[in-house]
Amino acid sequence: MQVNLESLFWMCQGFIKTRGASGGVIVNVSSIEAISAFKRDMVPYIASKAGVLGFTRALAKAYGRKGFRVNALAPGGIKTPGATSIARRVLTEAKRGLVKTGYDFVQRLPLGRFGLPEEVAGVALFLASDLASYVHGAAIPVDGGFLSAWQSRRQYSGRDADSGWFEAERADPRIDTDRSPCEVPSTRTRLPAPCWLCARRQADQPQVCSPRLRPA
């Protein structure tokens, strides 16, 4: 909390006080975890990063008319030295829980890769420049599309998202809901999003599955 949130408070307070009537631009760094918590056992981290978003919006409200533009970045899936170190430890120590978390995360990255620190820096540069002169109080994800895929997954999920069932299945009376949609493919119906159960079973080639239909 002291590193992620309290230090931010003191930095912004000092910056605003120093700049005064001259105004300026503030770009805070939050995380996609603050928007959609993904990994377990990260309550303090997620709480601090969520605080960064609230703090950013409060500053934008309070100081926008005093010449300050305030925004936040929400990075996710960035290949930093810390993330690389954790990946090496996972491989050497065979930590199954972390392996599963990493696998699940990559499966939900539409770009299919991790981002680079330079790609986050590029968005920060944009927010600090005059090109973003009308961007204010915003939280900009830099996550390879993770949050958009996560929201789509939640939108189409009829039950727990990991079960592989979707609202489209449960709403169609022709569909045999007693079986997994992956078990008997059919070309007659296509789901609006990938079946995540199938994606786990066939990690090398996740595909859009078709549910088994009852005979007409």
Describe the structure.
The C terminus is likely disordered. This protein has a three-stranded parallel beta sheet, sandwiched between helices. With 216 residues, it is mainly α. It has two domains: 144 residues, Rossmann fold (3-Layer(aba) Sandwich), CATH 3.40.50.720; 45 residues, no CATH class. Helix 1 runs parallel beside helix 2.
Overview features:
216 residues, mainly alpha, Rossmann fold, three-stranded parallel β-sheet, 3 strands, 8% strand, elongated
Helix content: 40-55%
Level-2 CATH architecture of the largest domain:
3-Layer(aba) Sandwich
Low-confidence blocks of residues: 154-216
Instruction: Report, as a whole number of angstroms, the end-to-end distance.
Output: 59 Å
CATH homologous superfamily of the largest domain, by name? Answer: NAD(P)-binding Rossmann-like Domain
- Radius of gyration (Å): 22 Å
**Main β-sheet, in a few words?**
3 strands, parallel
